Amino acid sequence: MAQVHQTNPKQVKNWLENNEAIVIDVREPAEFKSGHIQGAINKPLSTVCLEEVCMPEHTSKKLVLQCQGGKRSMMAVEKLLQENPQMDIYNLEGGINAWAEAGFQTQQTGRKVLPLNQQVQLAAGSLIVTGIMLGWFVHIGFVGIALFVGCGLMFAGLTGFCGMMKLLAKMPWNK
Length: 175
Prior knowledge:
By secondary structure, this protein is an alpha/beta fold. Helix content is 46%, strand content 11%. The chain contains seven helices and five strands. It has a five-stranded parallel β-sheet. Helix 5 packs across helix 7 (163-169). The two termini are 37 Å apart.
């Protein structure tokens, strides 16, 4: 069974300074543009694979995957290890959040956008409140909106698949 290697910001910074690692940022392009580790390559989670068109040449360097908080990059690491269980790959624990907390600089190439998980929370919360308010003041049937969104959140929590996140990733502000 393949072993997932966890690493921390200090170690990754050391590897980068010594030209020993390549960092792959698996967040969406807009998240990447709003702040990323200098030299990181953006490959959204949905495009991560072992083929040459997906991953840069890395045979002589450590491959470090990173996202906002570490969850998406861990999913990408697990996906790559399924394709090649012998692969030597690292997940940056805590993602770019941990990088920034460690006091390391990020490079910004675009406007700041909310991370996708916060966009989902904002959209889901808004839909739930709207459904409840409409159910209270207009017609009880509108409570179905809140029920539908709540069930969607439970499904996302159980399966790791979030349809709302997939939809929000396609929005113009996330390109």
